[in-house]
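Hey everyone, long-time lurker, first post.

I ran two proteins through the pipeline my lab uses and got sequence/structure pairs for each. Pasting them in order. The first:
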Amino acid sequence: MNNIELNRRTFASAAAFSVASLVAPALWAQPRLEKTRISIAVGSKAAFCYLPLTIAEQLGYFKAEGLEVEISDFAAGSRALQAVVGGSADVVSGAYEHTINLQSKGQRFQAFVLQGRAPAISMGVSLKNMPNYRTVADLRGKKIGISAPGSSTNMVANLILSRAGLKAGDVSFIGVGTAAGALSAFRAGQIDAMSNVDPVMTMLEQKGEIRIIADTRTLKGTSDVFGGPMPAGCLYAPLEFIQKNPNTVQALTYAMAHSLKWLQTAGPSDIIKAVPESYLLGDRALYLAAFNKVREAISPDGMIPDEGPRTALKALASFDQAIKADKIELSKTYTNEFARMAKERYKA
């Protein structure tokens, strides 16, 4: 081997070592995921309150974090929760207040990244069935459509009824889902009022078929209904799962934070390209109109505001006698530990 060849190989080896020395620390610093295959159960995935989950899936943000995520879609959040309680899924994409309900029953679940800083649920009455509606008291004896019993749409309806002096037993709640089934039930006159999510509610609103009587699609509307900020859609899981899989939970949070950041600047065409065609319910313009109504409700950074859980507890305790406010440890129902790290990464 001549000197030129020897020098060339020596230089190549030195360069390779130099590159390795730069890359290796980064690899060593990357925490090993305890689980790479994760099952997420969601209620009504196509609803705008869970749009961040869809974006993270469609744009490959979960894969970028080394995760293989399988998302199972259920008719409502209460049924998605049952999947995790039953052991067929790891994580719920659902409403924060379920963690309070679960704790009241002795089950420890914790929310770790927020998708919605407002519920984005609205309630309205049928202009066909109730043309002379004047006050919430008029709903006594009526049929109210909700996504499913025990869901957030049910919770919002209960709260609105209780503030008007009505109890859940004063009306009939009917599960209609959150998509085409809800539209069909409403238009067929099978229900007199409905508490539901977008894009369904905006579609009925723009067609002049519904009169909105309570609206949590904006921060102001949420404050009017709940008396303060109300954390909504989030990822939550059994506390034991979070404690056993902190790196995996952090990876999930990074993916969701990436999605939230993307949504802050996404334009109409970006949204249309990112979501499945079935989400549009056959009307792109109305879908985008609905998105504009709920855009403010999307969390900018995944952080749960400290006053939010207190608002949720107060609301639940106001109509559910099984919820004893003084027995609930709110600090155990959520953590911002993972979202805080994600916020730092993305400077959200």
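...and the second, right after it:
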Amino acid sequence: MKTKIFAVAALFLWSAVPAAAQSGGLNGPSSVGAELDGDGLTDPQYRSTFPKNVAPGWFAWKDGLAENGFRFSIDYLTLGQSSDSNVGNGRAGGGIARFYGAWQATEQGSLTFKVEHRHAYGTVAPQFLGLNGGALSITGTAFNDNGTMLTNLFWTQRAANGNWTLQFGQIDVTDFVDVYGLVSPYTGFQNLAFNTNPTINAPNPGLGIAGGVKLGSNFYAVASVADANADPTNPDFDVFSHGNLFKSLEIGYTSGFDRIYFDNVHVTLWHADAADDGSRPEDYGASFSAAWFIDNRWMPFVRAGWAKGTAALYERSFSTGIGYYGRNTDLAGLGLNWAEARGVPGTQFTTELFYRFSISPNFQITPSLQYIDNPLTSAQSGFPILGLRARVVF
């Protein structure tokens, strides 16, 4: 393979989150910073303190480390799904164990890390249940059987005045590319149609650089360049030799930089190089997202995307819906999606309804119902998928 020089010359932009989470830099709801700090906006009233009440010494020790600049968590997520599709297995289950955190090494610099182990309980992982059942649909995003993965190991550098942020290292572009308040598959919707836009051929976590800058008091921009061939189960520096890259640029508007993924309207442009071995064609596209947090309770959203090639899941996609946040950090969501795939006749419609029941800030249970109408890869009229997700944080 001809050696290429990996060079980046770009204006890297700023994407803020609530003040408590800024140590993570470019943070969306599924990023390490957001997982460690919460949303910073609501005034929650919890039902329980579990598991803090059964291991107070452990959490006190963690709090002591946090006071000295090192914050971390260990969590476990499990998801079971059941479908009455007349093809495929009909059932899927899987879990994710994660160790993640951030070290505030200097006043303006921090190191973020996340190691995961993703596993299926049976022959089909939830991520692939829709595909297994005859639909062109990712029904349990992130719940696959990839094994041990290094998904984050990057340095964040911020301007003293907060005007720009830069990240470089092992990054996950889905932490900040085309995100909104309900994007996290760990705490929000489970179907990819309502997570990172399914028309974006986002790469797996890998070597990359990303950053952002404020453009006045309400506008911002975010850009990234990352390894399009990344494999977080075997991280390496091959991008320096093959030069196959994913690039993105987002321009957005927010009501305030402490609410950037709550009150947010943006346009995202992206491009992914073809793989040199022919396993992935070149692809590029654009997406639009508008979401607004009304009264710190209601979040209506509209999201759309278009892709040129066949590498992304869909060629065209349009989603709309609403989320409702309760004082006890319960979260309800309803999403509707319309999608077309290049080279596949027909139009597929997806609906998802979920309710995240927060027993405590560290223990959540989320039942869900998805319905896929006119699945693109089978002759069925449609089928439902019942799901149950749980998460416990230590």
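Reply from user beta_strand_b:
Welcome! Quick read of the second one: The chain has a mean pLDDT of 89. The chain is about 5% helix and 45% strand.
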